[in-house]
Each structure stands twice: as C-alpha cells, then as structure tokens.
Amino acid sequence: MNEFNPFAFAIIGILLYLAFPFWGQSFCDESSKFNREGNFIYAQFEEFLQHFLNVSVVEEAVVQTTKQCLQRCLENPQCFSTNIAIWRRSDGKILCHLLSREKFGAPERFQANNSFHHYSILSVCESFPCQNGGSCQALNKVNEYICNCPKGFKGNHCETQVYTACKDIVEKQKKQFRPQDNKPYNLTLGSAEHRVYCHMTDDLGTCGGWGWTLVMKTDGNKSTFHYDSNFWNNTEPFNIEAGETGLDNQETKLPTYWSTSFSKICLAMKYEDRFGAFAINVQANSLYSLIAEGQYRSTSVGRYTWKSLIGPQASLQRNCNKEGFNAKCRWRGARLGILANNEYNCHTCDSLLGFGLQDSSTCGNIATHGGDNGNKDNQAMGYIFVH
C-alpha cells in the first residue's frame, strides 16, 4: 500500500462515513478539507504507515478500530492528528493518541516508528504557507490557520523580516553602507515597532564596527539625565522623536535602553567642534540592566581613554580613577564614567568625566582642586550606542 493514502470521513449526528474506495479523492471539494463548525463536521485524514508525530498528547484512548480513533479526534476540538498503535494489546484493543498538532504544521517532529501509524487531518498547512521557517497551525475552521514565526520574522506568513538592533540590518543585508545610510530604521523592541537612529558606517570615532543602535542622547547643560534622575532606573522613554534625528543636540532616551542586548557599548561626546568616541566590550541584556539597580560595575579602559571624549581640554585629578557604571565617591557620581581625586582615596573626589554626572554639569567633564589640566567645567553633548 502507498504510504500516503488520504481518506475522508464525516459525522452527521453519530454516523461515521469512510471513503475507503476512493483513495486519492476528496470527500468534499478541495477547498474545504476540514471543518468543525455547524451541524456538519468533516475532515480528511492522510495515513502515514509506521510513522509517529512527537507532539503534545491531548487525550489517550483505547479503541477497537482505527475508525474509532479518528472519530474521537474529529470530535475533540484540540485534536489535529493521531498516533495509532500498530499492535493490539492483550485485550484486543489498540492505543490511540489524540495530538495537538498535525504533521504538516510540525514536520520537524515527524519520524519513522515501527510501533505506530500516523493520521493527520489534511488542512491548508499541507501546502506549507508559512515562510522563512515559520510553523503552520491549523484552526478549527475551513481553510484557517496561523503561522508561528521564528525570531526575526513577522506577518501573516512570516514574510516580513524583523530587526531588533541595527547590527541585525547589517548582518541580513550584507552590503556596503554609505553615510546616507546613517538614518532611522524600524526596529521591533518588545511588542512594539519604533524608529531608531542607526549609525551604519564605520566612522563613529574609534568605536569601529557597523550598525550601532542609539540608546540615549544627553545634554550636559540640562538636568534631564542628572545622576539622580529617575530616567536611569525606569523604563520610560524621553522625547522619543529625537531618537530619529542622529548626532544633533536633542536629548532622548529610547526603548533600546531597556530592550536591546549588546556585547559592546560606544560612548561619544561632542564638545565645542570636536567629536570623540570609544567602545567598551561588555555583555548585557540592556543598559538598564547595568545601571538601574545602582550597583557599581567597574570598567578598565583607563583615564586617558575617558579624557579622549573631551580632548585637549579634559582635566582629571591624578588619583582614585574609579571608573565604570554607577561609579560613586562620597557626594559625586557618574552613571557611566570616571571619578578622580587629588588624595590617595576615593572619598572626596573633585573631578569626574562621563554621563549622568552628579554635579552642575550632567554630561562632560568637571575638575577642581588640582586637575591635571586645571579647573574645568566642560559641558558636552553625549551619545550612547550599543552593538
């Protein structure tokens, strides 16, 4: 017997009809192979000898005949296929598994087996309508189904590619990006889609790489992102429209702050007519996960690298040099930066450089009492990207 033998049956009241003489023919027209609505319910099953579908069992039954097993499946709204034991038990009955999926919607779980025959309800999933690796799930209505899309795709048929970070665009498009490609793109963050500025070219200071995702822009002249601001420890955006405008002077905090994982972070500052940037290798689920709880997490890039954000005008005292996330002395701190002192301890720091500063300037560089380049109050425009 051919391994693929379709037959149809219908239930009207309690009557079961099988179309065994008509192998390969439909019990009803080809466009309606399956229906559980109304007074007339029906389905076509396709037989796969010595095969087994390894999915969730919604009901286990013991029956006398294959026909009884298939009838139970059709009557159960959660059943879309069956595994039926080849060998009868000692009482003459056979084991019947009613399954939550059908073979066409879960082909990767379908396998040869010497102990079972498999019967799947024919549905629109037979034509594999889901694209890009999506799995088809038949519903209890004629020709209705949903596609369960893999990560990176969405749409009724998983036809639309989803990007969650700018680097995804670089990896998927595999092209040479040009300066005009530094612009906002649609990113899916959580359950929502947002327009986010992506720096796609390899010219973001010394950060290197392609496809940097903007997280924040902070103005050192304003108190929006002061060290004590709630914006550092909440998941509320700020001025989200400015997340599309690139390296300008508009402050913003984007959902990428709490939604985007990364392995590198790029810190950049614009001071007067100079732009400085460098990258830190750090693995995190989000920038929020590193900062919000207030725990100090050290970095080790060194004072001269931090000073490169400001350039020749930067000034720090020579001692302490406590750097990282939530760096704190007694009364000064930086959400992301470096603190220094003229004494050989970190108790009374009088100079700091970074983002989210606990001082009159909130981004940039402040130094008093013996900075290596004099006293400074360098208010900068800061940019934080992740990759």
UniProtKB/TrEMBL annotation:
Residues 121-159 form the EGF-like domain. One of its GO terms (molecular function) is oligosaccharide binding. The chain crosses the membrane at residues 7-24. The keyword Membrane applies. It comes from the Eukaryota. InterPro entries: EGF (IPR000742). One of its GO terms (biological process) is gliogenesis. Keywords: Disulfide bond, EGF-like domain, Glycoprotein, Membrane, Repeat, Signal, Transmembrane, Transmembrane helix. GO terms for cellular component: extracellular space; plasma membrane. Disulfide bonds join C130-C147, C149-C158. PANTHER family: INTELECTIN, INTELECTIN-1A-RELATED. This is Skeletal organic matrix protein 5.
